[in-house]
Amino acid sequence: MASGSFILWLHGLGDSGPANEPIKSLFTSPQFANTRWSFPSAPSQPVTCNYGALMPSWFDIHEIPVTANSPVDESSLLKAVQSVHSMIDKELAAGIDPKNVFLCGFSQGGALTLASGLLYPKTLGGGAVFSGWVPFNSSSIIERITPEAKRTPILWSHGIADGTVLFEAGQAGPPFLQHVGMNCEFKAYPGLEHSLNSQELQHLESWIKSRLQSSS
């Protein structure tokens, strides 16, 4: 049995952590008996693509739909990454093995999952990106990705019918990761719009389960 694991779920723009908590009820395998879940809520801040309206947002987004070539806001992204890193640090200080830490996120939360996993100095259990995108492109950030971080596995799931974060924005993920020197499992879901479905979450459960480290 695993000696304890941590799953962090990062919600999308305008959403809240508690609204996503039902996700954990799908993780019924005994391997998740010692899993601590966290569903934080993003702070309220002005969002450029919504004409500066205040809403729960991890970092600024300049345009929607998000395409493969949308502009990125790296300074607000890096601030959000820092807060995710401090959540991970807290779990490791409590004795959780970094390889039993899994970051997951939808849409804006998926983009933040990717950036937080890539910029964390240690190898984590994995990062799962749902309907997300690559939220940075400057070489100065790419140079900060450690050899340990490059060993963190990434699962990327995206609906082909997504009209909010276009499928092309998701498709740009694997080549970007390959360029960085990382592996990615990419799963396309025909007919799926900008949302999560039960197939994706079932796959996430088995994907995490196969990567949990036991305490033996």
Task: Describe the structure using short key phrases.
8 strands, globular, six-stranded parallel β-sheet, alpha/beta, about 30% helix
Strands of the widest sheet, in order across it, are 2-1-5-6-7-8
Count of helical stretches? 6
Approximate helicity band: 25-40%
Mass-distribution shape: globular
Mean pLDDT, rounded to whole units?
A: 95
CA gyration radius, whole angstroms? 16 Å
Pairing-aware structural class of the strands and helices? Answer: alpha/beta
Would you identify the regions where 5 or more consecutive residues have pLDDT less than 50?
none
Summary of the model, kept short:
By secondary structure, this protein is an alpha/beta fold. It has helices at 74-93, 108-119, 139-142, 167-171, 173-180, 198-209; strands spanning 5-10, 35-38, 44-47, 53-56, 101-106, 126-130, 154-159, 184-189.
How would you portray this structure in words?
This protein has 216 residues and is α/β, with parallel strands linked by helices. It is 28% helix and 19% strand. The protein is built from 6 helices and 8 strands. It has a 6-stranded parallel beta sheet, with helices on both faces. Strands 3-4 form a two-stranded antiparallel ribbon. β6, α3 and β7 form a beta-alpha-beta unit. α1 packs across α2. The radius of gyration is 16 Å and the shape is globular. The chain starts with a strand and ends in a 7-residue tail after the last helix.
